[in-house]
Structure formats: structure tokens, C-alpha cells
Amino acid sequence: MQSEINPWSANQSIDTDKLFTEFGIEPIEPLLPEIRNSPTFMRRGIVIGHRDYRPIVDAMNNGTPFHVLTGFMPSGHPHLGHLMVMKEVAWHVQQGGNGYVAVADREAHAVRNISWDKCNEYGREYLTCLYALGYEGDTYYQSTNNRLKDLAFEAAIKMNFSDLQAIYGFGQETALAHAMSVATQVADILFPQADIGPAPTIVPVGIDQDPHIRLTRDVAHKLRFFTVEKRDGYVSVRSKNAPEEALAAVHKAFPGSKKYEGHVDIKGGNLPEVDATVRTIEIEYGGFGFYSPSATYHYFMQGLQGGKMSSSAPESFIGFCDTEKAVKKKIMGALTGGRMTLEEQKKLGGEPDKCSVYLLNLFHMVEDDDELTEICRACKAGELMCGTCKKATYERVKEFLSDFKEKMDEAEHKVDER
Ligand code: TRP
Ligand code: SF4
């Protein structure tokens, strides 16, 4: 089945029920009570779903190691549509994660035809924004990270054309470089574990990136030497493609274990302990011991004209370097959830759920939950009119941007020092 989620298409109308029922993405809500100081983006349902977020919640709560990685394609200037993922990465680092950010210049060059110079320039802007948000951690460009490229090659051993066709709809005419940029993204997602060791890895992304996550989870699994499973009264370590000596080493590591053709059984074994030892052995014998990566998925902030925020349509987004005048024009001209006439709006109220201005506030401009609830209430009650609301929103955005630009200036040197 070819996925209906296509990372390179402009169509982002996604049916959330389908995500949960057909694609196996789980809602984030049931996990919320366990997430300490849960951030705005989770409380407000901007991050709607996840795959395998549980190990990350456990790692945050237990203070055990985990990684956080995401990537940005430098196909244009960064804008408010990219801020969500940036905040998510910075937040996970604050919660103890080892941070990694990839500038996906190989993808931008191969898929979007962006010159290497432009990739470099846009990439710098993305990184500056991240540092302005207080991000601390590793950053790299795909094109200059040789270990990444080696890992992409290794990952590509476990990928074939029919996978790519099934997942992305690639066909006979698809450029090989496009496929290579997919392998590179798989490597991005696995890179932190190859770099400093296996640990659960959270990849905050927009929902459009799910196909990459599924592919990477599959590749990570295929690259494992062993599967480790709890059985009745024992733990079974089964070789998938482990060298014989590695299986022998597992047997030796657990006195009293029994070795059979292709598997070792450890009576009374403790799953997490066996798992950890097996990963260490896997690495000793040339494997990776990867955990399958976890992901959180957020909604896209609707463009100011409705539809998608797109780097190629400047009126659809607010850029970090837009002038005040341009920002004002965009907000005052934005598509709202208001009615045709003032009378109607007073009578029926507005529709904040459909309003790009409301979403701007919900995503980034109003931190205080009570304040946001009040805007929503007043809008629905027909007490708040769009003109007033847009002006107030513009004031917030203006202040946000002037503060953010200052932080960007202060942070710029970090891009050179990394
Ligand atoms: N493909 C992503 C995009 O279009 C960018 C990206 C590259 C990425 N490598 C990544 C995202 C790794 C998450 C993780 O924006
Ligand atoms: Fe949107 Fe504000 Fe108008 Fe409500 S009042 S529809 S939130 S612009």
C-alpha cells in the first residue's frame, strides 16, 4: 500500500482519525499526565501523535540517556512554520536529551535543486534560529558529515527499490539522488546512536515525515544482530544476522544460559539487563545495537491565506527577517474564521478553529492558557471582531520578532564556533 502521506507533496490535508487507525500513530494525550512540566505544544494538542514515545517519557522521568534529533531542509529562509520543531528539539534537550540537528542540504540540492551556496546560507539561518531559542547540542550539514554518509550506505543495504516504491511511490523515473537523500535521512535519524551509543531517540517532526520514520524503524530493526524477547520464565536471544562468535559471546556473558542453533535462552533472565548486555556485545562484534527511533508528530500551522505555509509563497508565512510593514500587511490580510458581515459575526460568533490568526496565537504568540481561552471564547461569542483581534495579534508578533531578532544577533557567532 502506498502511503497517503507524501513528504514532498504540497497537499497537507490529513485526516487525523486515519492516522490513528490506519497508520498506527498513537495519540499523545494518554501520556500527558506522565510528562513533567509538559510544554504548551503538547498541552494544546499541537503535537497530536507519536510512535513509541513511551521510552522517551521513561528516560526523561528516570534521568537515563536519550537522544533527540531532527533535520531541516534548507530550501528557503526559515519562518514561523519551522518554529514548532525547533522548540521541540530545544525542549527535549532541556529535559536531558543529547541534541542533534541535521541541515538536510543533500535533500535540498537533490530534490529541490537548491545550489550548495544557497543551502549553506539558509542552513546558517536555521541554525541561528535554533541557537536563538537556546538550543545546545550538535549540528551538522549532511554533505560534510562523512560518518553520516558511511552510515547512509550501511542503511541502504537494508533498503530496496520495492520498499521505496511502496513507501514513497518512487518509480522508474525517480532520480537516484532522491533515493540517496532518503538513505541519508535514515542515517540522520540513526546518527546519534552511531555517534555516542545506542539509546532511545526522539525525532520531532511534522506529520508529513512519518514515512521516513517508518522506514527508519524498519531499517534499524533489520540492522540488529539479535532480537531479545521475554518468554515464559526465560529471556530468548535470537540471532537474526549475528556472526557465530557474537552468539557465543552472549552465551558466555550469561552463566547458566543454554545455547542452541541460532539462539540462546537465559533462564530467569531480566529483560532490560539482557537487552543492554546484548547491545554491548553487538557493538563489540561490529553491529550497531540500534533502538528503533521514536517520533512525535505535530500539526502544521495553517498558512495565512489558508492552505499550507510554504517557503515558495511568502504571503503564506511570517519570516524571521520580515520587516514590520510586511508582517502587518500579512496579518491584516490574513484569512480568518470571521463571518461575512459584522452583524453576522456578532450574532453567530467567529470560527477560531478555521482561523489562521487564531492558530498563530495558539501555536506561538499566546503562552498563557487563560488568555488564549479568553480569545477563543470572545471570538465564538461574537464579542471579539477580527479587525481588533488581528491588530492585537500583530502587536504580539511584532514584539516576538523584535525580541527574537535580537536573540538571533546574539547567537550568530555560535554558528561559526560549532
Ligand atoms: N526531510 C526533512 C524535511 O523535508 C528534513 C530532514 C532531513 C529531517 N533529515 C531529517 C527531518 C531527519 C527529521 C529527521 O524537512
Ligand atoms: Fe480569528 Fe480573531 Fe476573527 Fe476570531 S476574532 S475569527 S480568532 S481573527
From TrEMBL:
GO terms for molecular function: ATP binding; tryptophan-tRNA ligase activity. The keyword NAD does not apply. Its EC number is 6.1.1.2. Belongs to the class-I aminoacyl-tRNA synthetase family. Coiled coil: none annotated. The lineage of its organism: Archaea, Methanobacteriati, Methanobacteriota, Stenosarchaea group, Methanomicrobia. One of its GO terms (cellular component) is cytoplasm. Keywords: Aminoacyl-tRNA synthetase, ATP-binding, Cytoplasm, Ligase, Nucleotide-binding, Protein biosynthesis. It comes from the Archaea. This is tryptophan--tRNA ligase. Pfam families: tRNA-synt_1b. One of its GO terms (biological process) is tryptophanyl-tRNA aminoacylation. PANTHER family: TRYPTOPHAN--TRNA LIGASE (PTHR10055:SF5), TRYPTOPHANYL-TRNA SYNTHETASE (PTHR10055).
